[in-house]
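Re-run with default settings, no changes from the original entry. Doing this only to confirm the output is reproducible before filing.
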Amino acid sequence: MAVYAYASSNATPLSNPSVPYVIDLEGGDSYPASITLYGAGEDTADPAATFTFQWTMIDPPGSSGDAPTLSGASTSTLTVTNLSAWRNYRFFLQVTSSGGGSSEASASAAKDQAFVTIQVKGLYSGLTKPAAGERNWQSIASEWVDEIDALSNEPPAHTIAFHSDTTATGAQLNTLVGGSFAESGNTALHQHRGDHIPVATTSLRGTVQLEESPGTDTPAVLVNERIVFSGSADFSVDNLGAQVDYIQKQSVGVSLLPHVLFYVKEDLTLSEYNVTLLDGGLSSVTTTFDLVTAADAAALNAGTLTAQNLTVQVSAASNYVPVTGSKTGLSVSLPAGSFFGIALSTSTNLGNEELRCLRVTAHATRKVAA
């Protein structure tokens, strides 16, 4: 019987051990304010064992200015802050079981699963610097060799005049490379085209195509659209199919049916929804609404909707005044072709005619690119 330690940047280290946390400086990443590493233990003799934890950083930076700050070194989660150097940071976890055994204490003898690495990829080439004792870095060494071999094929440093086909005067060259409009006789000396030109962002210049692609509804510009849905209901349909002029629970089988329903034409992410009753009923009435979804029209027509358990509860402070409530901080993926809506799920006074004039708004975002 044995005790094993598992470390990872994944929140489930037992099933996903040694997953590295990658910071790709070349790809535009910046050093995060903090990184959480996760640990777990396994006692093969006692599946119900609990564990104590001890994290160690292998090969800490020699410069105190580059040394990260570690918090929670004796807990199952290690928080790493103040990263600033281009190098790999390697962490080793040892656990002690409530049954008395411990995982391997020697970093040189421990299994790979007891280690997790924060990998920092370089700003210019995306290369990494392995930490001392880091294992399985043959692929890293191959990247070094590829980069060195590519450099050997590049021309040596030289000036523009070095080229035999250069005929432009010095003044023209200064204009060409000096950041000004480079023209000769109202003709551009050079033009930039092609996919290598970056797309414009809110902070950086680049290319922007304003027109939509012909025959499609997809904008050709990188955007993050904010979309607001709104709808209302002034009556409900009861389980016998009768219309009642107030808001009551609607359902078929175990599925809640929405009072206000929206169709999703393109992939969206729902971030918030709000419900308002212009007549909130008696002050003693507490009403709960929920977000419900249907995968497609067939599911909707069959009455097969899924309650998301993302509820909003409203209650009137006095008789018959408007009440409102919001569910914020959501990140619900809504694929194209699906439906979503808001349904009354529970009420302390179901069936009484006090809840009227339901108004719903929903906020979503849509990201599209050319």
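The first strand starts at residue 3 and ends at 8. The mean pLDDT is 84.
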